[in-house]
Design a protein that fits this description.
By secondary structure, the chain is mainly α. The chain is about 55% helix and about 5% strand. It has three domains: about 15-100, no CATH class; about 110-170 and about 290-305, Cytochrome c-like domain (Cytochrome Bc1 Complex, Chain D, domain 2, Orthogonal Bundle), CATH 1.10.760; about 190-280, Cytochrome c-like domain (Cytochrome Bc1 Complex, Chain D, domain 2, Orthogonal Bundle). The relative contact order is 0.11. The structure holds heme C (2 copies).
Length: about 300
């Protein structure tokens, strides 16, 4: 595996010694203290330290119990052995050369080796075959919750700015090639801001016009003006009929499904500020086979949602 997890680099020697000196001094101090206390009378005596609390509570001057001292020595030895074997003393890596990153990568490699035959089998199946395979979909659901749910939600229904993957509205299309392309290389929807061109009034007029495709207009007087702006500025990307363009990721504006909210206010905000949705590329994060399986999962979500 590559070096995915970077560890803190103690770049200056100051921090190196800042850790080593107090740690080693602390261990030596503890050892001396224990040794000091193990000397003296081996048997219990009646002699007291001369302290009295609560009128009659006194402290005898007796040696520490042997078992307790031995435990103390054992912890000191454990600490020393640990610091020799594992990283802990400043930049010293420990003689075992163990790292968190190494262990993580080892576990990932193990998992990869274990699941590789399974993924290979899935990779040779079509999306339809995979969607009908309960085991495959279970594995895919797990992959989805680790890698995708953060943004698209654990039920894949999305949130503002993150598309719902269970409905029939697709920014970039849902055929196999489009989904794979979305996952492998990511997507970046670029909706320019129109504040300079339309201003506040123009934006309300265009919002009124595009919203009239899915609901009754609030202010019909604005429609004519809105249509003019739309035909001139927006039709190139969203289409003259407002049905969008999947090659650009320009959403269908007529279906009343809104990535960024469908109130007049939300649409005006979209128009004035623009929007820039980013679906991160997965090719560095997931294997080709995992992406194939997830692609099948995404298309299957749509079918299950309709049942
Ligand atoms: C960091 C957040 C984030 C993560 C993680 C993420 N996505 Fe996305 N995804 C987005 C955004 C944002 C978009 C919309 C991009 C746009 O607006 O152009 C998107 C778009 C998509 C689309 C296109 C939807 C359409 O309508 O065409 C699919 C399919 C998709 N994601 C699937 C996935 C899968 C599967 C995963 C897990 C491997 C995943 N995403 C992980 C944020 C994310
Ligand atoms: C260069 C192409 C382009 C032009 C021109 C353009 N848009 Fe967009 N528009 C997009 C893209 C791409 C998105 C999706 C942004 C994203 O995924 O983050 C979008 C998103 C939107 C949204 C958000 C839809 C939702 O579901 O929330 C609205 C509303 C919108 N555009 C309206 C307009 C209007 C009105 C105009 C003309 C004033 C316009 N657009 C001009 C490409 C364009």
């Amino acid at each position: 595996m590559n070096d995915q997890i970077q560890m803190t680099d103690f770049s200056s020697d100051f921090w190196h010694w800042f850790i080593i000196i107090p740690t080693v001094a602390g261990i030596i101090w503890c050892a001396l203290l224990a040794w000091q206390n193990s000397k003296g009378p081996k048997t219990t005596t009646e002699e007291t330290m001369g302290h009295v609390w609560d009128e009659d509570l006194q402290e005898y001057n007796n040696p520490l119990p042997r078992w307790w001292l031995n435990m103390f020595y054992l912890t000191i030895i454990f600490g020393v052995v640990y610091l020799v074997l594992y990283p802990g003393l400043g930049k010293f890596k420990g003689v075992l050369d163990w790292t968190q990153r190494g262990q993580y990568n080892q576990e990932i490699d193990l998992a990869d080796a274990r699941y590789a035959p399974l993924y290979d089998k899935y990779a040779s199946m079509t999306f339809e075959e995979l969607a009908d395979n309960a085991d495959a979909m279970k594995t895919a659901a797990r992959l989805f919750s680790t890698n995708c749910a953060l943004c698209h939600g654990s039920d894949a229904r999305g949130a503002r700015g993150f598309p719902n993957l269970t409905d029939d509205d697709w920014l970039y299309g849902n055929d196999q090639a489009a989904i794979i392309q979305t996952l492998v290389n990511g997507r970046n929807g670029v909706m320019p801001g129109w504040e300079q061109v339309l201003g506040e009034d123009g934006s309300w007029a265009v919002a009124e016009y595009i919203l009239s495709w899915s609901r009754d207009p609030i202010n019909p007087d604005l429609l004519e003006k809105g249509k003019q702006h739309y035909d001139q500025l927006c039709a190139a990307c969203h289409g003259a009929d407002g049905k969008g363009n999947q090659a650009l990721g320009a959403p269908n504006l007529t279906d009343d499904i809104w990535l960024y909210g469908g109130s007049h206010k939300a649409v005006v905000k979209t128009l004035i500020e623009g929007r820039n949705g980013v679906m991160p590329a997965q090719k560095e994060l997931l294997s080709e086979q995992q992406i194939h399986l997830l692609g099948a999962y995404v298309t299957s979500l749509n079918k299950t949602a309709k049942q």
